[in-house]
Specification:
The complex is a heterodimer of chains A (449) and B (169). By secondary structure, chain A is α+β, with helices and mostly antiparallel strands. Helix content of chain A is 30%, strand content 29%. Chain A has ten helices and 20 strands. The chains are: A alpha+beta (449), B alpha+beta (169). The interface between A and B is large, with 40 and 43 residues.
């Protein structure tokens, strides 16, 4: 019955999704056994699992005196049973595994209507000493939703064709939608100056939410960025702390009234997965996908999307400086005819570089400063063509550091203008080049404080 | 296996168990390695003094060997649709072959669990696979007279005793 000398948990990951709760048997110093339901049995690696430590219960007391535990798992597809013989090693109360489990538990707890009582105190790490697959007459496993390895290959091929951030993000969304059936997604990039992440593009939402912000460590997305680990929740409900803390904190946090862009996420998500974009040892952003269905993203989807996010990160990283090497500019279009129509009133508050178009909030921070620099120059000299390089070299823009993703800020600005003003556009005219297009007269008013 | 003290369980709890709940049985080895298996049928005597669980020997070799050696048993009884959960414990269990009546009644337990787990969206075939008995005549019955009972419904109160009888461990 013993499956193998060297246990390998990989074939059992489907049993660890929590669809059918695992059961754990332990025994106390007097030898009395105890059985308990497990909220989470998390795959750590081929030979380790983590169980959630939520209460100082009998299981907890038992493993501290006798580190042996036996877990009964059920395959949610086939109904077959597996037994894991475990040995308790240690408890982690911080770090990526703990934070990932904490986010997941918040989803489970809200699913069970117990968000207030389910608090993760620790991730108990166990070594798997043996795996037994029990005899039974299981069902045939359901066919896979799609061939994820092939889907990944197609997505990567599409990403490999891209030379600019905007193309990359669009190729990512199109690939995930076409090959993997993902319907709702966002890409967020970090702003080193504010320590927050901002949405640079999204797919499948009523409002794009471009420019909306999430703090590091906040919600599924913020935890993924801060801990540099994928965070996956299979049961999310309305009550989920992890979804709604984002909205709440956006309302309360450091964002002056009228300057918040609503977070675009689903009102009632069933599953969510946030994946950090990691390359060259840096966290370059987060890819976030969600679905109205519960259990939409399993370990397999997480594997595929983490690999895809890795490709995206590697492609993004050089773009950040590559875009500085400008192609020769096309000749600037002469502004042949004078602009007519009601002028657009642009107000710029220099304290935080927030910009309002006719009293409607547009953008703030570095992107706001860039916009005003371009506009000021156009209004003063008539010049409409600019290069990334000159923006990079302009100390007045206070770009946070050399590694800051200027391209992403330009994309953000471009999108915000697209969504909020038909009269002012920012166009890319080549690698590292951009053009400010005005279709109405503009009055720029800078308010210093 | 009889106890003159008042039964641990209320008639309502006995009825709840007999209506169809899932059962997970555990014991431990001489070296305190826990053993665990899923019960394929459960029944409780109406007076609440004896619980019987049926097991497939090929799925529960270690557990049966531990119980046959006279070691204690714990069983968690749970209603998946509500999460209501009880744990019963006894210092020893009796292991015997399932009677023809118990063998014949096993499909009724499967049907009850199909209704119960079906309410969570699982198809009847899944429950049938989970509780499948290829050879009813091989089923083994384990019986306990519960000595301790605990409320095990998930949450901070999980584990609080319903009552502890004299002499229980």
């Amino acid at each position: 019955m013993k499956a193998r000398a060297e246990p390998d948990l990989r074939p059992l990951r489907a049993c660890l999704e929590g669809a059918v709760p695992g059961m754990v048997a332990t025994c106390d110093a007097e030898g009395m056994p105890n059985v308990a339901y497990l909220s989470q049995v998390v795959y750590v690696d081929e030979m380790h699992v983590a169980l959630s430590f939520q209460f100082f219960n009998k299981t907890r007391r038992n493993i501290l005196v006798n580190p042996c535990a036996t877990v009964l798992l059920t395959d949610p597809g086939t109904g077959l049973l597996h037994r894991l013989h475990l040995r308790y090693l240690r408890t982690e109360d911080c770090g990526p595994l703990f934070e990932g489990m904490r986010a997941q538990l918040a989803g489970i707890a809200s699913h069970e209507g117990m968000a207030d009582v389910f608090v993760l105190r620790g991730a108990d790490i166990y070594r798997v000493e043996d795996i037994e697959s029990l005899p039974g007459e299981g069902l045939s496993p359901a066919p896979a939703r799609c061939d994820l390895l092939h889907a990944l290959r197609r997505c990567c091929q599409d990403l490999a064709q891209c030379t600019a951030l905007e193309d990359l993000v669009q190729a990512l969304f199109a690939g995930m939608r076409t090959y993997m059936g993902v319907e709702h997604a966002m890409v967020l990039l970090p702003d080193a100056a504010t320590g927050r992440l901002y949405t640079v593009a999204s797919m499948g939402y009523a409002q794009s939410g471009v420019g909306s912000e999430v703090g590091l460590g906040q919600g599924v997305i913020g935890v993924a960025a801060q801990q540099r680990t994928a965070v996956r929740i299979s049961h999310v409900t309305h009550a989920s702390l992890y979804t709604h803390s984002i909205r709440r904190s956006m309302a309360a946090d450091a964002t002056p009234a009228g300057q918040d862009i609503p977070y675009p996420g689903l009102d009632a998500p069933g599953s969510q997965l946030a994946i950090p974009l990691l390359a060259a040892g840096r966290m370059l952003g987060v890819v976030f996908v969600e679905s109205a269905d519960e259990m939409r993203f399993g370990y397999q989807e997480e594997d595929a999307l983490v690999a895809l996010a890795g490709q995206l990160a590697v492609a993004l990283d050089p773009l950040r400086t590559f875009a500085e090497h400008a192609e020769p500019a096309e000749p600037a279009l002469a502004s042949a005819r004078p602009l007519t129509g009601t002028p657009v009133r642009v107000r710029h508050f220099s304290a935080n570089d927030s910009v309002f178009l006719n009293d409607d909030y547009l953008i703030k921070g570095v992107a706001g400063a860039i916009f005003c620099k371009l506009l000021r120059e156009t209004l003063a000299t008539g010049r409409v063509d600019f290069s990334n390089r000159e923006l990079r070299l302009d100390a007045s823009l206070k770009l946070p550091d050399v590694a800051d993703n200027l391209e992403a800020r330009l994309l953000l600005l471009q999108r915000r203008l697209q969504e909020n003003s038909p009269h002012i556009r920012l166009e890319k005219t080549g690698r590292g080049r951009l053009r400010l297009v005005l279709k109405r007269p503009v009055e720029l008013d800078t308010v210093s404080r | 296996m009889t106890n003159r003290a008042a039964p641990l369980l209320l008639p309502e709890q006995v009825a709840w168990i007999n209506a169809g709940v899932s059962g997970i049985v555990a014991s431990r080895s001489a070296t305190s390695q826990p053993s665990i298996a899923r019960a394929l049928a459960l029944s409780m005597r109406p007076d609440g003094r004896k619980l019987t669980a049926l097991l497939r020997p090929d799925q529960s070799r270690e557990l049966l060997s531990d119980l046959q050696a006279g070691r204690p048993m714990a069983i968690v009884l749970s209603q998946p649709s509500t999460n209501r959960t009880l744990q019963l414990k006894a210092s020893r269990a009796r292991v015997r072959s399932a009677t023809p009546y118990e063998q014949a009644a096993q499909p009724a337990y499967v049907a009850a669990m199909q209704r119960e787990i079906g309410s969570l969206g699982y198809p009847p075939e899944f429950v049938a696979a989970l509780l499948h008995v290829a050879q009813p005549q091989e089923l083994v019955a384990v019986e306990i007279a519960p000595e301790q009972a605990f409320d095990q419904t998930p949450g901070p109160r999980a584990g609080s005793p319903l009552r502890a009888l004299e002499g229980s461990t």
